[in-house]
Every structure is written in C-alpha cells, then in structure tokens.
Amino acid sequence: MQYLHTLEERVVERFEQEAKLRKETERKAILLIDERYNYLMNELNKEAKNRNESLENFHKIIESDIPKIQEGLKEEQNEMIENDQAVSNRIVEETQRLINMVLNEKKAREETEEALLEMLKAMINAMKTQLENERRDRQNTQEYLINLLDDMCSKITKANDLI
Prior knowledge:
single chain; mainly alpha; 0% strand
C-alpha cells in the first residue's frame, strides 16, 4: 500500500513537472512571439518613417521638376506598396510559423501526458494482477499447510488410539 502511495506521489510529481515544463515552454514561445512582433513593428515604423521622409523630399522636388517627379513618385509609391505588402506577408508568415510551433508543442505535450497516463494504468494493472496472484498463492499455501496439519493431527490421534 505504501508502494502505491509512493508511486502515486511520483506520478503527481511527474505531472507537476510536465505542467511546469509546458508553462515554461509556452512562456518562452510567447516571449519569442512578442520579440518578433516588436521587431516587426519597429521595422514597420521605420518603413513608415522612411516613407514619410521620402514623401516630404518628393514634394520639394515636385515644385521644381513636375513631369519627371510625377513619374518618379508613381514608381516610388508602387515600390512602397510592394515593400509594405512584403513586410505584411513576412509578418503573416512569421505569425503563422509561430502559431504552428506553439500548436505542435501543445500537441507533443498532450501526447506525452497521454503516454504517461497509459503507462501508469498499465503499471497499476500489472501491480493489481501481481497482488492477486500473490494472494492466491498465499491462500493455496495456507490451505495446503492446514490440510497437512489436519492430516498430521488425524495420524497422531490414530497413533494415540492404537497405543
């Protein structure tokens, strides 16, 4: 019984360790996501600042050379749109990758927990079977010894009766 109690404490301890590990992994993943998010937001802010500075410079140039500048402005705007789209796509891809990573980690953790539960169930069933076998063996041995004692007593009684 003490063994089962100790085993149960170990199982509970293992589950607590797994929960701590899962929480730590989730915390690290969240920190990584936040770090990447902040990096990408800084990049977006830099791009926005660059875009604003470019627009100011273009307005100055437009005043002196309108036809050339209009063509250049159109090209720059298209490039900025493409850059914004590329940055946006990069954010989406990175976010999706991080989400997939978190989901995979969660799935792996759940599979580990299920495997541990199955292992514990198998161990408990094996221990129950072993205890039942030992109890049955003890009862058989006890019955055999009682029969031997009864047989011995009857033989002694018969021997005393003969004497």
